[in-house]
Amino acid sequence: MYCSNRDCPERLLAGPASEYADNVTKCPLCGSHLVAEQPVFPPEPEVVPEPSPYPRQHGRYRHEWEEYRRRRKKRWVMWLLWLVCGSAAFFLHDQLPSSLLANAAAAAILAWYLVSLGTAEYRYQTWPCPRCNKPFMGWWWFRWEFAQSCLHCRFPKWEGE
CA-to-CA distance for 57 and 55, rounded, in angstroms? Predict the structure, then answer.
């Protein structure tokens, strides 16, 4: 007796249909009725995927790597903004040293800048790995900015882009 199911797990794993004893009437794996003669299944047609009208231009983690670039750019912009904010704060402090308003403005500029820089640095250094979702560059107590792979799962930088 043979299983008549084309998609029987035994057939898919072992290849040809398995033979069962005459007293067995149902396949123990798929539950199909058994037949006396070994079934001949027509060959399955090969499925050729049609080419997509929209070819895949980017990889699986494209959006994650774009977010990494965005955070890196914001970080560098904040460091370059030091030239503007620092100059403005020192100009206000030097030109109007006795003015309380100028000193308050200089302090406000520096406070805003330091908070913004700290936020940009934190977001850049805690960017999550696309694969394991842990910080790509390290842990809370250690950061390796020049890491070429995730320090947790060894996922290579720019992989799947």
Answer: 6
Report which of 138, 148, 88 is spatially closest to residue 112, judged by C-alpha positions: 88
Closest CA to 151 of 138, 141, 142, 133: 138
CA atoms of 153 and 47, how far apart (whole Å) = 36
Q: Single out the residue of 117, 87, 114, 92 nearest to residue 105, CA to CA.
A: 92
DSSP 3-state assignment of 10? helix
HSE (CB half, 13 Å, CA atoms) of 42?
Answer: 2
Pair of tokens at residue 56:
């895949």
* pLDDT tens, position by position, 86-118: 888 888 777 777 778 878 888 888 899 899 999
3-state secondary structure 89-132: HHHHHHHCCCCHHHHHHHHHHHHHHHHHHHHHHHHHHCCECCCC
How is residue 33 written in tokens? 């009725």
